[in-house]
Amino acid sequence: MYEGNRLVLRYIPGVEQATKLAVAADWTLLWDNAGKPYRRHTHEQEWGVRRGLHVRLLSDELSDMCALSVLMEDRAAGAEFERLLIEHLNPLTRQELLEPIISRIDPSERMMRLMRLVLGAPAYYDQEFYEPIAQLAEDPDPRVRDAVVLACGYLEWFQLRAILRRMADQDPHPEVRRDAMNTLVMRDNTNVPPVHP
After folding, report:
1. What pLDDT is attached to residue 33?
2. Which residues does 160 contact at the CB level (< 8 Å), separation at least 6?
């Protein structure tokens, strides 16, 4: 199935909003990773709307940010359903997602904007979304840099590997280096055990 755009919900926490919609629309819950440890800090669900049309929920539990995407066999029908979701949910726009993340704002706000940006990023590489991620990988606050490592786990862009490699090798904070190495190991799907503190 083809995955449409990720629609980042404006309201936090978004899981309740998405669940209410699914229940009201009588969608069938197909999959839920609640309580499964394979992906730390992430809650995912998938609902069947009708044959060949599903809705996937991706929620970052640290920021409470949430995104929905439409999975479709028929792109025209899926695009129409996505348009209806946009009308109903009023998700963040591309312009809102790409608002500059400046260093003058509080680190927790930078991390929130980073997660919002990543959850709304396209499945395929997009330079406009990549640049803020690369900039935040150099942030003076190690918590923000560690959030970049976590955020890189939401995107499968090959270009992020260089950022993670640099952070794993050169970041001044040991926890950021460790987390970047663990993310690289998971991305590379190797049998190397995770690095512990």
Report:
1. 84
2. 130, 133, 152
